[in-house]
Amino acid sequence: MNALPAELADKTIAVLGGTGPQGRGLARRFASAGLAVVLGSRSAERAAETAATLAEATGGNVTGLDNAGASAAGDVVLVVVPWDGHGELLTELAPHLAGKIVVDCVNPLGFDKQGPFALKVEEGSASEQARALLPDSTVVGAFHNVSAVLLEDPEASVDTDVLVLGDDREATDLVQALADTIPGVRGVYGGRLRNAHQVEALTANLIAINRRYKAHSGIRVTDV
Which of 44, 86, 132, 200 has the smallest number of Cβ neighbours within 10 A? Predict the structure, then answer.
């Protein structure tokens, strides 16, 4: 285990939706890197059970609370929940997320007989909706295009870049450093939050690629 970057050494990472595949996978990787992790879920009991399993598997510091408790406990809070409940959850949790860096990882996608497709969002993207609902938080978009299957497999290499979007340089630098704690992953600044739509929508293309090629595809940015 490599030493944590100084800016992350004293930070607790909360993962809302931490009992689902993507949230659970990210939590596993962060705990394995030596970060303190709090899982959030609608059910505190389920969060605690999942946290205990991850703590045993990684030897890390992982605890579980309901979403409100995890929001209050985290210094950096990842939102890894289904799009359908995104707006309602953030509206409810806004007081607990004030003053914190909130990393929105949600992809507004639909599925039909032709496959996955990006949904239109009134605010422009899930990340921009989060910013509108959380005026007292610093919202960053990241971790949209990372395979949950690879994150959850401790033997798998997660060979991908993570595009980090936001309007606060200190916050995007911190989230890039957070991405860098996962072996094989590199955090890359991807522009202002207004550019989050195409990054979220790209997940539909990656799902289509995965289905065609039976893969767990990611992205790499060249010449950086």
Answer: 132
